[in-house]
Amino acid sequence: MEGVAGNASTALVTLWALAGVTLVFVLLRLYTRIRVLKMYGTDDHCYNAAFMLFLIYNILLQLSAEYGFGRDISDIDSLDDVNRAILYEIIGQTLLIIGNFFAKVSIGFFLTRLVTKRRHKVAIWTPVIIFSCLLVVSTLVFWLSCQPIAYLWNRRIDGHCSIDPVPVAVLAGASSVFVDLWYSGFPWYLLYSINMALREKIVIGSSMSLGVVAAACGTKRAVELGKIGSPNYPKDTVSLVVWHAAELSATMIGIGVPICLPFYRSTIARVFSRGSHSCCSSERHKCKESDGEMGVFGNFTIGGTPYASHGQSSPTDDKFDRSALNLRGNRATTCGYHSVDRSISDSEIAELGRDLEAQQY
């Protein structure tokens, strides 16, 4: 063990910085889904799994750097250190490939919540299915390119490499870029026909367009994939390691921004409502949601469990949130709106309830 080389040190700083920024969105997302919306779904599991694999990747690269990652093989005194450096790196790269898959699946579940038509769902999931197939093939080709498998990281044993993993790896990298670009543009098409506030459409579409940044990082990574067959693997793959992490980080940030929208809005609402009276201030929701906008957007559009926590009824059992309609002495008030200053009839109350229901759909 010889310590961390200069270029490896720079790469590691970049990796941990990317992980730190991504962690901010992971925590905000968790808080939003668990505390603000009290809804947690499959997309959240995939998102968190991707981040956990990102952390493991960084740890493995840190270990690899201690044994020689970032150095010329000729500058590493111990062959055992060379073997460990290569082994930790290729395991880390494999795990991050899986993390990239989970991140894209999370986006797929996110977009699925925005659509009802079968053709839209097919358009969402087809690129991911193709990408996952290429991912599996490229991973298997890489790990099975040498016989025995241990020859991949230990050249002191008898063996040979009969398969070039570069072409299929580049193809898989190109498919990742395509998926990033597809998921950057397709949400704009979906949002155009959705009954949602223009501001929310812009926020969601713009954040999802961060996939363009992920695609740029993925393009650079695809170029660097040509070096996975290099005999000087620990030195030549430093850039590949960084760009791979950058692609995943950009993807997770892009999907993290719209998920946290209810938290952003509730925070802003609390800041601007200080010192002023609001009908929500004494209610159970504490202005955390604006019915027909934030609540619906958070609970149904983005996704999550089909039930509310703390024994609340399923959204399908009650077409709209009745708590948004407050009846006080035959006077109706709605959370976030001015109270009605006149008595209203039961038919008007029912009509107001139907309006709230329509906003959810």
From TrEMBL:
GO cellular-component term (any): membrane
Localization per Swiss-Prot or TrEMBL: Membrane
Keyword Transmembrane: yes
Domain Rhodopsin per the UniProt entry, residue ranges: 28-266
Record's bilayer topology term: Multi-pass membrane protein
This protein's UniProt keywords: Membrane, Transmembrane, Transmembrane helix
Descriptive protein name: Rhodopsin domain-containing protein
